[in-house]
Amino acid sequence: MLRNLQELYQYRGLLLSLVQRELTARYRGSVLGFLWTFLNPTLLMLVYALVFSVYMRQDLRNPLYFQFVGLLPWIWFSTSVGGCATAISDRRDLLTKVRFPAQVLPASVVTTNLLNYLFSLPLMVVLGALHGMWPTWHILLLPAVAATQLLLTLGLGYVVAALNVTFRDLQHIIGNLLTLGFFVTPVLYPIATVPERFRDLVLYGNPVAALITSYQSILYEHRLPEARPLLWVAGLSVVLLWGAARLFESRREEFAECI
Asked: Are 183 and 143 in contact (CB under 8 A)?
């Protein structure tokens, strides 16, 4: 894992170039351009707000803000993992011409979506302010939760990127698993609505659930997140990234031949 991180640092210029190109190309030719970074999560939130605030009303204070707090990190996670699935298999032009550092490709996907998440945070603060919910000192813990999510997302991204090179069906399976994951993760509903006998299973069996509830604790409930689930996810993320780096390294020489 350390070698992988060292190589990412060594090729940081290339990584930043790929991230910049992705951010530029994503909305090239659109009228609103970069504004879609804010509009996409906002429009998605409005759709879910219609469902959960009108048709399936929840007993929540400021449900729009609550949903936005959970939706932003979920979009970062899901788009990163889904994008990493094809990060290697769709880049034959780069991998076959020179000895290209393949580990940069999944990292660029995750970093691009991390920046989209960060760019959306001011919109979330404004939305909270409109509902009279300003950030408190608990927001100081937000970088720690985001860093844990970064490690987890990178680990999963490397795994799916490496495996999808030879097993192309994986990218379609990942899409369906992410849809399932969205509904079993407390993004649009509080963890308190989950039956008590299943809460530990949700928090410890679904690492994204522990992260989402931590964001909700910090930004919506204005309290410290539960330490045990968050520490569990942090430890799991380090182990996962270590194993993913080894898997990626062991298969890296095969990428150019397989694609």
From this structure: no
Residue 133: both structure tokens together:
């919910």
Q: DSSP H helical segments within 1-136, as ranges?
A: 2-10, 12-26, 36-50, 63-84, 92-95, 104-130
Domain that includes residue 89, residue range: 2-258
Is residue 33 scored above 60 in pLDDT? no
CA 163/CA 174 separation, integer angstroms: 11
Distance, in Å, from the CA atom of 219 to the CA atom of 222, rounded to the nearest integer, reads 6
For 255, the enclosing helix (H) or strand (E) is helix 255-258
> Is the distance from CB of 77 to CB of 208 less than 8 angstroms?
yes
141, containing H or E segment: none
Query: Is the pLDDT reported for residue 120 higher than 70?
Result: yes
* Interatomic CA distance for residues 115 and 92, integer angstroms: 26
Query: What is the reported pTM?
Result: 0.86
* Residue corresponding to tokens 């080894």: 246
Average pLDDT, the chain: 83
The amino acid present at 143, given as its one-letter code, is P
Q: CA quadruple 27, 69, 143, 241: dihedral positive or negative?
A: negative
Three-state secondary structure readout of 160-216: HHHHHCCCCCHHHHHHHHHHHHHHHCCCCCCHHHCCHHHHHHHHHHCHHHHHHHHHH
Radius of gyration, alpha carbons of the chain? 19
Determine contact, residues 150/73, Cβ cutoff 8 Å.
no
Number of structural domains found in the chain? 1
* 42/116 Cα distance (integer angstroms): 13
